[in-house]
Design a protein that fits this description.
Blueprint: H1 2-9, H2 28-41, E1 48-52, E2 67-70, H3 76-86, E3 91-97, H4 98-104, H5 106-114, E4 120-125, H6 155-158, H7 164-169, E5 174-181, H8 185-203, E6 208-214, H9 218-221, H10 225-239, E7 243-247
Parallel strand pairs: 1-2, 1-3, 3-4, 4-6, 5-6
Antiparallel strand pairs: 5-7
Helix pairs in contact: 2-8, 4-5
Length: 253
């Protein structure tokens, strides 16, 4: 047990030991560490290819020491598909935000999952466009004010927020789909387990793996880091329930 705790708390060998540029209270840094730790634990650092997307998520290649390629806006699943088919011996994952994946990239993620591409997709959902100015995203909550919905998102005008983990979990090609959060120690522990599972289904050749992370964006939410972290645990989790929505493989023991 002591050795296991040491492994969990050790600094991931493939993570760059440098200060991050993310805003105070942003959860990208925590998610980066979980990704790096999972890759290290599985011994994948030397054979991994990361596909970065457009948005705050693009900077992952500055912090995790793997080969990387940057995709056009929303096209990370398509690029990941090409990389995996060209180099099936490599482990391939993409790292995307909600504006990138669920808006301009909705077609790419749907067909990538439906085909059962053997890639892993990490989806960071902070309910807003982060880098480009805080516009309304497909996951923006009803009533949430953004730069393009100053009066709040309205159901009758804009529709409801998309629940991507449930949508992708309904497709035949999806081997694993889950939603997690990193706003507490308990949730971080469960998030790491889900991420490891999504990575494992690719290694086992079972199909498409997907993990949605609920994340804070204090800057565009106009909140303090503590307020934003609290919002994830209260408001976001109420609409976007945490859990595993599909797992076609054998459960971890």
């Amino acid at each position: 047990m002591f050795q296991e705790e040491q492994q969990v708390n050790s600094f991931p060998e493939i993570m760059v030991n440098t200060a991050m540029h993310f805003c105070p209270g942003c959860h990208h840094g925590i998610i980066h560490r979980l990704v790096a730790q999972s890759l290290s634990d599985l011994g994948l650092g030397g054979r991994t290819i990361c596909v970065g997307s457009v948005g705050c998520s693009v900077f992952i290649y500055n912090y995790i020491q793997t080969d990387a390629v940057e995709a056009p806006h929303g096209r990370a699943p398509a690029v990941a598909t090409g990389v995996k088919r060209a180099r099936p011996e490599n482990f391939v994952f993409a790292y995307q935000g909600d504006g990138d994946l669920a808006a301009i990239g909705l077609s790419e993620i749907m067909y990538c999952a439906n085909r059962g591409e053997k890639v892993s997709i990490i989806f960071v959902n902070n309910t807003v466009y982060g880098m480009t100015g805080g516009q309304m995203a497909p996951t923006t909550m009803i009533g949430q004010k953004t730069t393009t919905s100053p009066l709040g998102r309205a159901m009758e005008r804009d529709g409801g927020p998309l629940r991507m983990a449930e949508i992708l979990g309904s497709l035949d090609g999806t081997a694993y789909s889950a939603r997690v959060a990193v706003n507490s120690i308990k949730h971080i522990t469960k998030a790491k387990k889900a991420l490891r599972r999504a990575f494992q289904v690719q290694l086992d050749g079972l199909g498409f793996g997907f993990v949605e992370f609920l994340s804070a964006c204090p800057t565009n939410w106009r909140m303090t880091p503590l307020e934003a972290n609290e919002r994830v645990g209260s408001e976001l989790v109420e609409y976007f329930p945490l859990g595993v929505f599909k797992d076609t493989g054998q459960k971890d023991g």
